[in-house]
# Entry
Amino acid sequence: MNEILFSNPVIVYLLSELILFVLLLIAFIISIRVLIHWDFESFSPLQFKLEQQAYLVTTITLFVFSMKFLLLLYFAFTVDSLASLIAGAMCSAGVIDANEYGSPLLALKLLILFGLTLWIWVNFYDLRTKNYQWFKEKSWIFMVMFIFITIELLLDFTYFTHIDTHQPVSCCSALFGQLEGANPLPFGLNISTLLILFYLLFALVILTLLTHQSLLYIVANILFLYIAYFAVVYFFGTYIYELPTHKCPFCMLQKEYHYVGYLLWISLFLGSYIGINSAITALWLKEENQASIKIVMSLLSFFVLLCSTYVAVYYFKNGVLL
Amino acid sequence: MIQIENLYKTFQHENTSTTVLNNINLHIQQGECIILKGVSGSGKTTLLSMMAGLDKPSSGKILIEGEPISKLPDLFASQLRAKKIGMIFQHFNLFDHLSVRENVMIPLIPSGLNINEINQKVTQSLNLANISHKKEALASHLSGGEKQRTAIARALVANPNIILCDEPTANLDRTNSLLFIEILKELHNLGKTIVVATHDPLFDNVSFSNTIIPMQEGTIVEGTVVNE
# Structure
């Protein structure tokens, strides 16, 4: 336990999470007071004070939420750096699987990232109204996110304090490999149908994005995100590793693979999160942003292009597919 | 035009609170010239900052052409200020390393006008402030009076309806101060609404219609003089 807790990346990571949480706690306490008494039409001393405090809360939240994006990347780096300390772990996959808290923590972090992106969108629109039109909506999202972030902090500490370095863990081949012929792909798909679905869903995402069909776009992008994960792990990843049996979403984050995993996962998740949240705000707040379409298209196209390039380059170099 | 109701401003420092504006009520019509007179610390500059949306009140209402500038988010307060308000400061607030023309041009940069339109407006403004002969000179090479006329040209370049002047003659000699008052007269004749915060006695006898409002310790006190 000490080996993990006293490793430099873990100390830096947990300390950063703690500092950000303290800032959010301050913002949370102020937010409750602001939400209870908020009346924008009033010119009273209390309302002017609340407006100043709301500005402070927004500044703190925007800063903390921006840092949380960077900290998620640092979490991936931290977990990867622990692989050398844990028996049997070859990459982050084994470290995440070292106890029962790792996978829920990772899932929670991805969920929080989604919530933060939604808050940033609502904040973006709120600051473009003369009367802070979306202030209450923004504050409620913040409240919910604060609860999730509190759970995340507890899970962070529980996870890192419960890693037993002497207990052997499974490596990624065992975790993501095809054991005893079982099909790990969803809906009983095989690789060919998975790939067809991957490219079709990408086309549908772009089409619905350009035609502003928000509801259909949300469904298409969620499906694309889900299918893209399996496509990367079980098909494109093998071309990154240049090994048909190497199936892992984490190894590609390592130096040997030029940290390409960061590029892939950031472009996929950020593109999808921005797109889905932009569509949600279009349906919910009736606010649309043309710039978000360009950003989402760029990020998701980059993701698909990068995945496909690995396959094409391998084929041109070796004349065969894996 | 400018409507101020029940305006208070209090500064809090540790456990001490200082009220610098205390229940200010003021209605200024389009084309009026208001001279806020009072000694240092009477709240003139704070009141002017509130009118310009540079500072927020502790409570109370300020409407600029119906818009509650005291409640607007920074983005909208800046937009309102850029369109409707020109400010002239005691210390001129010029960029010393830029020329007179460049200083005057600055407020128009975010406006989206093309360079020909900008140049046209800058020339008009320089002529109005009587500083066009120095347009290529660096601001750091100007005399106090010339700096103030550059500041006037900058305040006028976006053609605002309201001109706010904070101690505009405090750094000028008598001749330049009288010149400044002459320019104010021209602006008044153009129908601009002018608010001057000053303690300069030269403003007691200006040759155009104005209202002198005395301020003391953050309040408007008795003795308002209307000069027709």
Remarks:
- Residues 2-161 of chain A form one domain.
